[in-house]
């Protein structure tokens, strides 16, 4: 019996529902199968997203601004649906079933996209070189098939991405020191596979789409997803599973509803009179911020289901610990809000920047670089920045400051600043491109200007992502309550979603405002006829203002965190003093 206890993973089950045996379940082999799903998900999603704008403009004959918005709405929905995937995984399906079901949905959507790009009746006729103005746009039914394919992929991506990292860490026992070390390695390898999948997408897949066949490229994405699903299912007997613990969203709603119901109740001056049920070692000490929520912990007679059994109604009363967990989430929101603009600038790298590249000279000898493959410099900047930070900055910072690298808030700030520079450089590069375009016809397919002019903006924003992605992930996971780690990851991913949606909104507003009175506008049917440099300049200004606001929010958060730590130290000192007296 004792031997079984020692070999069982904490709070984990095998596929039959029995306590998971460390010697037979979990570890690197099941984790590698899970990484395979994430690799194929990135390969599929990014292989579609980075080159979709050229298909919408060149094949479906849609205006430039409309095409950019379709891409950003698709990507935004993909990340926003991570919240739905996380809710289903936590409350009903579990992570294993969520990954399996939604990976199949993504594979189905990718297959539909491959078919829709292959069949000629699902796209408009080719334009005549003599009269490109008479190009026919895609019909409503043709766009409906395209939208159905894209949003099936978005649903699948949301479900897979919300659960795959969590299910990977489930394969390691957090109470085992060796497994803890492996878990830290897993996060690094997870991000590596994400970047590797993106790198393969923007090089190999984009080349296949542009030079061989777009439907073949999408077909490869679909086949890879189906193969990944089969490999993932093959590990069913080897995985470790965690029980559904219920959704933190319900927890937050319960605290909010209880506080609203007791809005007229007075909060006692003695915090010990507030309701608390958590064990002493798991309690979160009461804080004075957001006092209105404390009303949820005020005890009243009607808070219990019956007069005989003391079973509190969670929609009428919440413990202090649960209230404080909700307060912790609220404290994250200013940082959450000020990081959205970064992902708006990121959206330009896979929309307008790719369209810019398609109008420029892209030859290296006899080889012509596909426009979508320019994002390889973006991905390379991420990988190089991470390597330099890990191997150079962290050791130097540890020697100088005594801490291993920048804090999560500092990394986020660096990312925001680099993206601001990136947009400023992008505006200057576009001004140069437009000055060349003005000397030629708007329909000139290739301008005599090297595409490498765009590399600095890719490098700056890519380096910014390396800092902000790792900083955000670290911040939201470490600063959120222990029981809300999955939801905190979802909150982080929604910053990406809202960044893409904000990009679509900005493009629509700018187009409407700048085309007023019959003007051509900044973003219109063709970037050669617009002023994309002004749009990039606007983003640079908004990014700089956002950076200043972020500094204020980060300072506010640190001051509150310091106050909370000070209160914790006082409580600990009181406890130790009491022990000394005893």
From TrEMBL:
Keywords: Membrane, Transmembrane, Transmembrane helix
Membrane-traversing stretches: 28-58, 70-89, 95-115, 190-209, 215-234, 328-349, 369-389, 409-429, 449-469, 490-510, 535-557
InterPro entries, sorted: MFS_trans_sf, POT_fam, PTR2_symporter_CS
GO CC, alphabetical: membrane
PROSITE patterns, sorted: PTR2_1
Location within or outside the cell: Membrane
Membrane topology, record value: Multi-pass membrane protein
Gene3D superfamilies named among the record's database cross-references: MFS general substrate transporter like domains (1.20.1250.20)
Family: Belongs to the major facilitator superfamily. Proton-dependent oligopeptide transporter (POT/PTR) (TC 2.A.17) family.
The protein's name in its UniProt record: Protein NRT1/PTR FAMILY 6.2
Organism the protein comes from: Abeliophyllum distichum
């Amino acid at each position: 019996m004792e031997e079984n206890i020692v070999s069982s993973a904490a709070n984990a089950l095998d596929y039959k529902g029995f306590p998971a045996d460390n010697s037979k379940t979990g570890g690197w082999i099941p984790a590698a199968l899970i990484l395979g799903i994430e690799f194929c998900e990135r390969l599929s999603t990014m292989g579609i997203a980075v080159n979709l704008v050229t298909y919408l403009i060149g094949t479906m004959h849609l205006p430039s601004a409309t095409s950019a918005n379709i891409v950003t709405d698709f990507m935004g929905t993909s990340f926003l649906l991570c919240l739905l995937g996380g809710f289903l995984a936590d409350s009903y399906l579990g992570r294993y079933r969520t990954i399996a079901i939604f990976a199949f949905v993504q594979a189905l959507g990718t297959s539909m996209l491959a078919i829709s790009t292959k069949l000629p009746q699902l796209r408009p006729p080719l334009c005549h070189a003599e009269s490109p103005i008479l190009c026919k746009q895609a019909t409503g039914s043709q766009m409906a098939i395209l939208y159905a394919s894209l949003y099936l992929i978005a649903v699948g991506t949301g479900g897979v991405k919300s659960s795959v990292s969590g299910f990977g860490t489930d394969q390691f026992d957090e109470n085992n020191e060796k497994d803890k070390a492996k878990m830290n390695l897993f996060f690094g390898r997870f991000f590596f596979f994400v970047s590797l999948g993106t790198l393969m997408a923007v090089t190999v897949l984009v080349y296949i789409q542009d030079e061989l066949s777009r439907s073949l490229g999408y077909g490869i994405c679909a086949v890879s997803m189906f193969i990944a699903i089969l490999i993932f299912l093959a590990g069913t007997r080897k995985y470790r599973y965690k029980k559904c613990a219920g959704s933190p969203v319900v927890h937050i709603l319960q605290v909010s509803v209880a506080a609203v119901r007791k809005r007229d109740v007075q909060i006692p001056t003695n915090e010990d009179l507030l309701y608390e049920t958590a064990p002493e070692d798991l309690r979160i000490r009461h804080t004075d911020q957001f006092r209105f929520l404390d009303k949820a912990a005020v005890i009243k007679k009607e808070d219990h289901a019956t007069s005989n059994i003391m079973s509190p109604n969670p929609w009428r009363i919440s413990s202090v610990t649960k209230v404080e967990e909700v307060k912790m989430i609220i404290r994250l929101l200013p940082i959450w809000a000020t990081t959205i603009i970064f992902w708006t600038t990121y959206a330009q790298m896979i929309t307008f920047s790719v369209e810019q590249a398609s109008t420029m000279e892209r030859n290296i000898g006899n080889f012509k670089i596909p426009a979508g493959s320019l994002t390889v410099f973006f991905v390379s900047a991420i990988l190089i920045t991470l390597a330099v930070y890990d191997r150079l900055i962290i050791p130097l910072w540890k020697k100088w400051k005594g801490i291993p690298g920048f804090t999560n808030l500092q990394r986020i700030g660096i990312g925001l600043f680099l993206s601001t520079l990136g947009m400023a450089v992008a505006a200057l590069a576009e001004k140069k491109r437009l000055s060349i375009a003005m000397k030629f016809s708007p329909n000139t397919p290739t301008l005599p200007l090297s595409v490498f002019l765009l590399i600095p903006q890719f490098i700056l924003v890519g380096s910014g992502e390396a800092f902000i992605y790792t900083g955000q992930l670290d911040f939201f996971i470490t600063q959120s309550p222990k029981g809300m780690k999955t939801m905190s990851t979802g909150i982080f991913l929604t910053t990406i979603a809202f960044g893409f949606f904000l990009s679509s909104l900005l493009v629509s507003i700018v187009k409407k405002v700048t085309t007023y009175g019959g003007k051509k506008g900044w973003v219109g049917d063709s970037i050669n006829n617009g002023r994309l440099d002004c749009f990039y300049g606007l983003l640079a200004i908004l990014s700089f203002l956002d950076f200043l606001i972020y500094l204020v929010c980060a300072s506010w958060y640190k001051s509150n965190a310091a106050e909370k730590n000070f209160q914790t130290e006082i409580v600990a000192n009181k406890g130790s003093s009491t022990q000394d007296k005893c």
